[in-house]
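Problem: given the chain below (295 residues), write out its structure.
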Amino acid sequence: RPSTMMNDDDADLLFRCAICGTAEGDSSNLTHTSVLQTNATVGCGHQFCSSCVERELSRRKDFPCPICETPVKRVTLSTRTLDDVQCEKDTSWRRRVTKVFNKVESDFPSLLEYNNYLETVEDLIYSIVNEEPNAEECKRRVKQEEEANKAQIVIRQSQRADMERSIVDRIAAQQRESERRKREHLEEERAVALQKRKFAQESAEVLLGEREEVSADLKAAQMQGYRNELRRRGKQQQNQMVSPRVREPEGGLERDHLVDREFYRKRQVAGGGITSGSSLAHERNWNELLSSLLA
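Solution.
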């Protein structure tokens, strides 16, 4: 079975003139500044030097490639390689075809039909780019689809543009959120470093006898961890800032009435002098419980 791998000789021919075998780096090519031109036709892709091209095209409109016998015309010659030409052609036709065949998955009752639709679009692009026998028929089909469903195509293009803008907005929001978290992290790191420097400075002052002890805030921060302490303080500040206010009554707040000694004695005689939350009330309840158990 013949090998599908290209040997070194065949690969070298792709970078030489198919007629005279001259390459751009050969010493025989130093006498002129011509460059190799590629026959950008599907199935060929061989290169020709300027001298051979001018000699052959001066006698006829086209000439056959001596390697694959593909017609070579002046309009098909390019200084780019065949791969570059095919890539540009594929990109151009893909953009045009997908602009017309722009249905989405929600337009189909099943995923299988949507996949078949995408496969049909790929077949159209492949046939046109590679100049298959049905290439002209595929081009007519694209044109007919564009003329028959122009309104629906425009609507789907608008919907897709809205979706792309929404995606861009979400990405921008995520980037802003990431930057905000990064700034908060940097500020937190700077605050932690400042707390550490203060603790080291006050510790040195204690050793030198300039102060009695390190401040209580720095001690607590060191014991519990600088970062956790800063987060706890930040949460406390947020809670203080958003704490709800007490709604005042319609008549306004009133002062508590002071109870004088005489009024308090009258309440004791009536059996209501001891408040329910005092230690005397607990002691009275305990004594009543013991008496009921021992009776």
